[in-house]
């Protein structure tokens, strides 16, 4: 006897193949069934199921709101076997006016806020379909879309909604699937409908013509879109980056002399509470100067974020800094990915609308076929009832002669009726061509007509009811003709789609909320800032400030000066220079890094103010200190940055190598251990340099003796130093500067013609610059000047004096010089700065003690974004 075995055969499968197949199946399930919207109705399955469920439960705009828990439960039980919070979150988002441009759910209760507050529990909130949502579901009962079994084959659900408008673009969508994501911005309904109609009327329409109708996204939170290049790219390729900015105005505060920035609209998907907290953090950490207070005054009337400014602060400068540091400026990355014929695809604007139009063509065609069948069936019944009422006596006689309803129905089907022509005339329809049957007056009822006659009420036999039947027959005949014409003529079919779109636009369109501003129209903060000379002072402890040069009116030499920076025992001014508000400033750290800022970004302060710590202002690392500061008017070709260290090392680097600076600084110079950077200057590569030492020595040599090297180099020797001596500064010739100005610690100084300093080779001992006697004290500064220049001297007690070079006596190299500034016992000059004179008459007298007046403007500008 032959044995049979029921052992199941096992087929070996490669684990790589199995993982690949299983993962792809899972990925496509997530892509198609959960995370990516359908291009036709613009909905993900969960949103489609929520709307359909509410439609089935008749929770519409004309009825009462129902508990969200009821809706969620129905969706979970019938269509969406996932977590209840996933369904509720999707429902809540469709009710949020700050999330959807046109909400699809009319919510009642707490559905969350733009501050990031979560919706209340579903047992507390209520909802119903919004009127816009009804237009997505309209005609779903007319066989316009396909239905498929739900997860357990117990119900049927639509695979797509009929959607009378392009929901995908109108409300946008966002989702993360497996290996891909979608992020589609919302648009204005009227603009999208206009573009759809334009494509219907002209299939060859260009993108430029479409963008004249749809200039860009229209976010529910309003705001501004900066630049059209990102929009153009997104509409062309389906991918692009759109820059969004908050809308703001400037108001005067109750304090009168101050202003406040009022933010009324913020970028889409930005959390307002976090935004306000971030602005407050920037203010507290002094990353943004000029803000005195931030508060949120938003209420049900609208959004209102108030940013109060300090006195004389320029609002646009503050805003540009906030744009850079906070979500007042944000980016929307467009990725127009949707499901097209069961597959994910990235579409352009025109392609997206073309797929919607094709969907509407199919919906209207299927709806017309359904309505035609219904109209023809109804006309058949009305025609039979009309014939019965016309020949009622014979019909009644036939029914009375029948034994039962079944016999009556059969005998009616065989009964020849007369009066078709009369009925058609009452209905306003043309009589049919005369056939043999018509001539004999024969009209036979169908089974449906016979059954309808048997069920007809006697009230239908009145004259008024007969007229109604005739009128109904005429209307049905017209409807049938219209539907047949639509199905037989593509042009008429498309006109139906256009008419319905125009109706949607008429009922639901509103004004655009988001303003689109061309990139070239962006405000250049630098253009808004007056160009004027500023005195920039740097203290030994590393504080910086700027003050208008006009504050320091010229005095004759020997004056007492005015208070420049409040003196402290542990700090004094170590460097001062004059530069335009539009100039760059290079801040070199002792670690060899360089940080670049604009002069107008430096905090402005009064003469005697301390200023702000440079390490915080430029973002230096902990432990770094400022070693040298130099102004740079602009980045130009054939310009160099020359640096000198305390030990006499000199280095030259092309200015353009610093052009691509970063917020966190770049390498500027390499410093030998035990040395430190002293000074940095801007040159043209063909100037003469004078390097001076504390003991009164100097060396003059041509700049071309220093070969240009990269930023990360150490340089070469400039001067041979005696034991204990150090370099205190460097003068650069050019632009008629043919005088060497030297200033000593006790306020004495002199100017000497440069020709008295013989040219030497770099690295020599040099010659005497000034007699650093006991009366004069050590040399503290050197500069190349013209006789028309002015010079600013600063003491360690914060006193400043501005005087003309022409008032300083010209002497020989080894002379002691004359008194430039009176200094008290224990006080010493610590820094000098020479600059071109203004056409301003000198005031005060020799030995005068006139304090210089202020221009009355003190502000704390914020760096440009």
Automatic annotation (TrEMBL):
One BP annotation, GO: DNA-templated DNA replication
CDD domains: TOP4c
InterPro entries for this protein: GyrA (IPR005743), GyrA/parC_rep (IPR006691), Gyrase/topoIV_suA_C (IPR035516), Topo_IIA-like_dom_sf (IPR013760), Topo_IIA_A/C_ab (IPR013758), Topo_IIA_A_a_sf (IPR013757), Topo_IIA_dom_A (IPR002205), Type_II_DNA_Topoisomerases (IPR050220)
Cellular location(s): Cytoplasm
Keyword annotations of the record: ATP-binding, Cytoplasm, DNA-binding, Isomerase, Nucleotide-binding, Topoisomerase
This enzyme's EC code(s): 5.6.2.2
Active site: 124 (o-(5'-phospho-dna)-tyrosine intermediate)
DNA-binding is among the record's keywords: yes
Residue ranges of coiled coil: none
Record field: catalytic activity: ATP-dependent breakage, passage and rejoining of double-stranded DNA
Additional information: Few gyrases are as efficient as E.coli at forming negative supercoils. Not all organisms have 2 type II topoisomerases; in organisms with a single type II topoisomerase this enzyme also has to decatenate newly replicated chromosomes.
Name the record gives this protein: DNA gyrase subunit A
Organism name: Chondromyces apiculatus DSM 436
């Amino acid at each position: 006897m032959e044995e049979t075995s029921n052992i199941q055969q096992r087929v070996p499968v490669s684990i790589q193949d199995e993982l690949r197949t299983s993962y792809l199946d899972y990925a496509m399930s997530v892509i198609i069934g959960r995370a990516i919207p359908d291009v036709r109705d613009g909905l993900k399955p969960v949103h489609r199921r929520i709307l359909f469920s509410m439609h089935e439960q008749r929770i519409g705009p004309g009825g009462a709101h129902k508990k969200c828990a009821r809706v969620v439960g129905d969706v979970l039980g019938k269509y969406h076997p996932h977590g209840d919070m996933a369904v509720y979150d999707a429902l809540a988002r469709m009710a949020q006016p700050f999330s959807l441009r046109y909400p699809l759910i009319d919510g009642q209760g707490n559905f969350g806020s733009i501050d990031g507050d979560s919706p209340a529990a579903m047992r507390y909130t209520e909802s119903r379909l919004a009127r816009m949502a009804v237009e997505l579901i309209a005609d779903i009962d007319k066989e316009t879309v396909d239905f498929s079994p739900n997860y357990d084959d117990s119900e049927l659900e639509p695979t797509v909604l009929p959607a009378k408008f392009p929901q995908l673009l109108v409300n946008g969508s966002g989702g993360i699937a497996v290996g891909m994501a979608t992020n589609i911005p919302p648009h204005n309904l009227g603009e999208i409908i206009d573009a759809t109609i334009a494509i219907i009327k002209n299939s060859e329409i260009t993108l430029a013509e479409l963008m004249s109708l749809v200039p860009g996204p229209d976010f529910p939170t309003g705001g501004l879109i900066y630049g059209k290049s990102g929009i153009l790219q997104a509409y062309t390729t389906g991918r692009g980056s759109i820059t969004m900015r908050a809308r703001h105005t400037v108001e005067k505060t109750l304090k009168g002399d101050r202003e406040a920035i009022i933010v009324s609209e913020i970028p889409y998907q930005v959390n307002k509470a976090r935004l306000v907290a971030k602005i407050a953090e920037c203010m507290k950490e002094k990353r943004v100067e000029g803000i005195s207070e931030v508060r949120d005054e938003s209420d049900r009337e609208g959004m209102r974020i108030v940013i109060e400014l300090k006195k004389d602060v320029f609002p646009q400068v503050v805003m540009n800094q906030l744009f850079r540091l906070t979500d007042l400026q944000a980016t929307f990355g467009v990725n127009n990915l949707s499901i097209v014929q069961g597959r994910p695809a990235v579409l352009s604007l025109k392609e997206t609308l073309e797929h919607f139009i094709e969907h509407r063509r199919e919906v209207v065609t299927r709806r017309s076929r359904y309505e035609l069948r219904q109209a023809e069936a109804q006309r058949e019944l009305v025609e039979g009832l009309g014939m019965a009422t016309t020949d009622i006596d014979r019909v009644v006689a036939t029914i009375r002669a029948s034994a039962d309803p079944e016999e009556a129905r059969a005998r009616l089907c065989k009964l020849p009726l007369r009066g078709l022509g009369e009925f058609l005339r009452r209905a306003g329809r043309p009589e049919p061509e005369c056939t043999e049957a018509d001539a004999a007056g024969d009209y036979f009822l169908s089974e449906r007509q016979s059954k309808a006659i048997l069920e007809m009420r006697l009230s239908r036999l009145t004259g008024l009811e007969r007229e109604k039947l005739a009128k109904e027959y005429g209307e049905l005949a017209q409807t049938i003709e219209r539907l047949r014409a639509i199905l037989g003529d593509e042009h008429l079919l498309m006109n139906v789609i256009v008419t319905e779109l125009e109706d949607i636009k008429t009922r639901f369109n509103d004004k655009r909320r988001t303003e689109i501003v061309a990139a070239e129209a962006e405000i250049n903060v630098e253009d808004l800032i007056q160009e004027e000379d500023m005195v920039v002072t740097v203290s030994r402890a590393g504080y910086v400030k700027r003050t208008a040069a006009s504050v320091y009116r010229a005095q004759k030499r020997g004056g007492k000066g005015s208070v420049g920076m409040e003196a402290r025992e542990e700090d004094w001014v170590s460097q001062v220079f004059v530069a335009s508000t539009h100039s760059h400033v290079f801040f070199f750290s002792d670690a060899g890094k360089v940080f670049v800022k604009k002069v107008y970004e430096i905090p402005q302060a009064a003469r005697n103010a301390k200023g702000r710590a440079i390490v915080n202002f430029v973002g230096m690392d902990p432990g770094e200190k400022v070693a040298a500061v130099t102004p740079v008017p602009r980045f130009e070709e054939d310009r160099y940055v020359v640096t000198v260290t305390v030990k006499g090392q000199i280095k030259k680097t092309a200015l353009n190598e610093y052009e691509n600076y970063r917020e966190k600084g770049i390498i500027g110079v390499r410093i030998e251990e035990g040395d430190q950077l002293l000074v940095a200057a801007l040159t043209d590569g063909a100037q003469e340099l004078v390097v001076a030492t504390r003991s009164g020595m100097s060396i003059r040599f041509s700049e071309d003796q220093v070969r240009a090297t990269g930023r990360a180099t150490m340089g070469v020797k400039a001067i041979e130093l005696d034991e204990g001596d150090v370099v205190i500064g460097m003068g650069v010739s050019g632009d008629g500067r043919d005088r060497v100005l030297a200033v000593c610690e006790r306020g004495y100084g002199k100017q000497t013609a440069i020709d008295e300093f013989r040219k030497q080779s770099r690295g020599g001992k040099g010659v005497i610059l000034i007699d650093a006697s006991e009366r004069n004290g050590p040399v503290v500064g050197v500069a190349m000047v013209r006789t028309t220049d002015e010079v600013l001297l600063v003491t360690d007690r914060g006193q400043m004096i501005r005087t003309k070079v022409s008032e300083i006596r010209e002497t020989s190299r080894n002379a002691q010089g004359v008194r430039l500034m009176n200094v008290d016992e224990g006080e010493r000059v610590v820094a000098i700065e020479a600059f071109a004179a203004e056409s301003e008459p000198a005031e005060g007298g020799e030995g005068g003690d006139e304090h210089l007046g202020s221009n009355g403007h003190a502000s704390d500008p914020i760096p440009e974004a």
